[in-house]
What does this fold into?
Amino acid sequence: MTRPSTAEAAGTVPGPLPRRALAWNVYGAGIESVGRDGRPEWVDVDAPGPDQLLIRIDAVGLCFSDVKLIRLGGDHPKLYGRNLAESPTRLGHEAAVTVLAVGADLADRFRPGQRLAIQPDIHVDGRSTAYGYTIPGGLIQYHVIGPEVLAADDGAYVIEVDDRLGYAEAALTEPWACVEAAYTQRRRLWPKVGGRAWVLGDPADARPYAFGDVLAEAAEIVLTGVPATVAAEIHRHAMGAQITEAPEIDAALGEFDDIVMLNPHSTTRVGAAARMLAFRGTLNIVSDEPLDGPVEIDLGRIHYHYTAYYGTARTDVAAAYGETRNRAELRPGGVTLIVGAAGPMGQMHVQRALQMPHGPDLVIGVDLDEDRLAATRARLDSVARDAGRRLSLIALQRDGPSIVDVVREQAGRLADDVIITAPVSSAVTAGLEALAPDGMLVLFAGLPVGTYVWLDLAPVFLHGAQYTGTSGSRIVDQARVVEKTLLGQLSPGHSLAAIGGIDAAADGIQAMIDGTFAGKVVIFPQLRGLPLTALTDIGSVAPEVAAALGEGGVWTAEAEARLLGRFSSSPDEAGDTVAADPV
It folds into this structure.
């Protein structure tokens, strides 16, 4: 049995267009403000204008980042103080959709029946207006999208997909894009052209530093305690910059795009300078001697603001910058550790590490939840076997071995790469203990800005260690996931743990809050009568769907086809559809 075509899945396209749809609007903070009395509500569906598309929502993945919106309501950063009681929004930023009708101005770009995945991280005039946040999202059966999605800063924030990807797979390309983005360079790798730079040193330092043209394109350079020979070189190469001197570190100097510290020694001094980094700012420590201790660093800024810490033990300041010195991908043939490996996103990092060409030889996943780890093992053991990789999933015990002890026992050495998917600072410090001196730390979990942790920066400039973080994804990341899926290098369906129809969305959100499932929850808005159901329990609801699951109970295109055939689409009530106008 093959997956039904787009037209077969939910009515002929083009054809009668819906007048109404079931929706889960958000009217304030708290899960009780999602929907009406715990149920979806009927809302009117507009006909598309000339610059709009009417879309059918085929599948929506639920994301833990939705919980932040539920908790904060209009105080969520992406809602800018919006009064949701008067102007509700809607969750559902992981959406796979089908075009039902096309406005006249878009007829040369889109067509009825076309399948799309939405990239929710939308920016208009540089301001985040994300789908599923500022723009009401996909927990609805049908709705209209226009320039707010299709004509933003990067053009149309949609990616075309075809029937080689199931609806759930297409929806899950968005969270997978966030995982993919974690291994791309989001930091700035060179000093900013036209930026503010700050060089700090010691007048008595006689090391032969070479700046060359590192700061040649800066607009402003501030010098603090810089040796005379270094100051002379900076003046010689940065002729167009405004160069001034400041006697000491002072917050009144403002923020800097790039900071260079020559042989600083003092962690207090480094920490004070780090607090003055601008968004995407870089701090370069040039020294062959360790600092006098760890530095208090804002982890949230590494994750959300992409602040970067570089360094070199050489006197050539430029040696700290660039792609060669600063990798972003997992080390081939190495040891990778994922902290929080049994959560939905942690599982994706484990799976990616196993499936990537030329990836690590050993993938170690640790988590506190033994049941979730067992579910992860069931899904991914076959992936590791097929890829010829070693997978070790370890449940941490309160009084048992530490993370570093686990890594040493499994690998015989420290990890080349440590990925933190648990949003607690203690997970970061524990993971760092297991990181090799030249390793890479990836802060994937979103610790808030203002979360300070004492970090040893000496490995950065002495051995080339990397401390990185990412937030969200871009269109190119999601397009890469689609491409990798079609090439067989990724299988998003492995991430799916539970499904439900439109009526089950609130139950799915609560289950996500409670951590009920070891994997992603996907809602199929076109389906009625399908309760929230774990894939492990689907046999009790739809035995024919269970029979089509893959090894380890993994979601498949065949299982999805049977699901769509088993549960009816939303019933059209009298007068709830209108004939489509020809495009």
Q: What stands out?
A: The longest strand covers residues 53-62. The domain at 196-320 is CATH 3.40.50.720 (Rossmann fold).
